[in-house]
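Homework-ish question, so no full write-ups if that breaks the rules, but can someone show me the predicted structure for this set?
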Amino acid sequence: MTSELPAPHELVTRVLAVDGVTDIYAPAPTAARLPELIAAATGISPDGPASEIVVTSTGGDTTVAARIATSSQDNTVETARRVADTILARTPLDAHVTVQVARIH
Amino acid sequence: MTTDETPTALDCGTTIERLTEYLESGRTPVDPHIESCPECLNALEALERVGRLSRDLIADDAARLPATSDGWFERILTTIHSELRAGRSFPISHPDPRVHITVTEGAVKALLRTTGDSLDGVYISRTQIEGDAETPGAPVEINLTASVRFGIPLPELADELRALAHDTLLRHTELNVTAVNIAVEDLHGTPPG
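A: Not a homework solution, just the prediction itself:
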């Protein structure tokens, strides 16, 4: 747990290191259309480098979202929980974490 | 068959024609979108398998093949296209209320296809997840439709496929699977003699 959000690219590195994660993807098309909402909390400009993990802040609520692929050799339920725990450990107490498994292979 | 309601593209906008063309070109030159889009990759995998099946059938003695309806491959391609969209979001629980985890319907269907196709002589042509799968604990039924190579004992195969699909879903989702129904709609391959 931290009081500040890390840069999205740092979260990407952490998430990719989680056992059972095989890939991480850019947000789904609908989420990708919200660049102006990115990172009021992080201070990172939407014009900055693109990241597969998106941080949005709307109405004071901060959400960190990751879209991942998991290995079919592992247990996807446990892998996804480990990813959520990894992000939680690096986000402020009031942040919400969304993990979407988009591919199992 | 295609209808007005049949999706013409995945959620990302990529069409099955584009994916087929990309596969036929040996995935070169590399398309950065396709290679980094989960829906496209799920569909590519399914298309690769149906392509292999198609080549196997063509390599067989066509004159001895049991009748396969003309639209069989077209139906499969259309089904792949519509099934592998992201679709619904199935919840995965987490003890922290700030966490929201889901697995997409497209990912689960692609996994079911891969799992079923791993059995010798089986090609999964359709997957359906029936029920309110977006509500935790709600009962859901799985319907798998398969094409099976001629000569494989169907009752044993159905049992094996049912058990495999059930185990896979237990391992990768929190769906409350109350039934896995297997339908064999086609036989492929060459009958003996």
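Now go work out the reasoning yourself. Hint: The longest helix of chain A spans residues 76-88.
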